[in-house]
Amino acid sequence: MILPVVIMACSCQRYLEAGEKGGYFTYVNRAEMAIIKNDPGRALACYRKAFRYMNPGFASEHFNAFKVAIQVKNIDFAFSNAMQLVKMGYCIEFFEQYPVLKEHPAKWGELASLAQSELPVNLEYRNTLWDMLNEEQAARLEGRPRPEIRAIDSLNLLKFRRLIGQFGFPSEDVIGIECTDNVRGIRRPAYALMLLHFAQAEFEGVDSLLLEALERKKISPYSYASVEIHFSQKQRYMPAPVIRVGDDFYIERVSEARLKAINENRRTIGMPSVEEHIEKIKYAYRNPNHGYRLFTSVDAIFDVPQEVIDAHFVKIDI
After folding, report:
1. What 3-state class would DSSP assign to 52?
2. For residue 267, how many C-alpha atoms fall within 13 Å in the half-sphere facing its CB?
3. Among 28, 74, 176, 281, which one has the highest count of C-beta atoms within 10 angstroms of its own C-beta?
4. What's the CA gap between 70 and 85, in Å, rounded?
5. What's the rounded Cα separation, in Å, for the pair 165 and 159?
6. For the segment 162-181, what is each residue's pLDDT rounded down to a tens digit?
7. Can you give the C-alpha Rg of the chain in angstroms?
8. pLDDT tens column, 229-279
């Protein structure tokens, strides 16, 4: 039983470049690359490596690791990741979609019992954030004037800072996670959209708040980079390297020197290279029902003359 695990663990090392040091995000990226290359065994080995550096990890990684474990029929690893997700508040209904789990009644009973126990997360904090988001969304849907919406966002930022001071940043270990309505994924936390609006409004101090959360591993590098672009506007990380114009897909024309700088910035915060990110985006579009949680969002742009698109972007096949 020991030998196969050792072999699988070593196989993940092959994904590292010469001289590259491992770490949580390094191995997560290698796991995701293995997923898109249909190598679940190597993906599992990489997730094992990742969780040695950070355990529990982010919910998305435990979600993917669970699905990989199911695919390779590693029941112990599947239950290990299921337990981590349930501890964060993930619904038992998701796991009921996998009958193989119930073939192990002792482990299933432990998982079901955990799902019914009191969660070690702050549900009041989570609900308060949803109330704040619902208020700002209602204002936008009602078409209220921009100054009024800005005032609501500003007040929400003050409330958000106060809550962080009292309870800490609302990370997964603090407020937990929730199933999506279709019981297939993880619901986006309420604060994510509010943070985006804070950044778009260029409120002072949002950048340092996010950077601290990143450094303490309270938010993922993707989440940080997606919001950071709105208050820095320096395209340090190019969080969405593919854009969509109508039915066509493009990547930005960048010099080798700039691409190298962007990839170094990405590596510093734990993101994969632009090239690897594009591979994942292609995989997601070619396999729309892949079922994994990969950050593969694509920005869409409208009403831009074709000559401008051709001058600044290169068309790619998805």
Report:
1. helix
2. 13
3. 28
4. 15
5. 10
6. 999 999 999 999 999 999 99
7. 21
8. 988 767 899 999 999 999 999 999 999 999 999 999 999 999 999 999 999
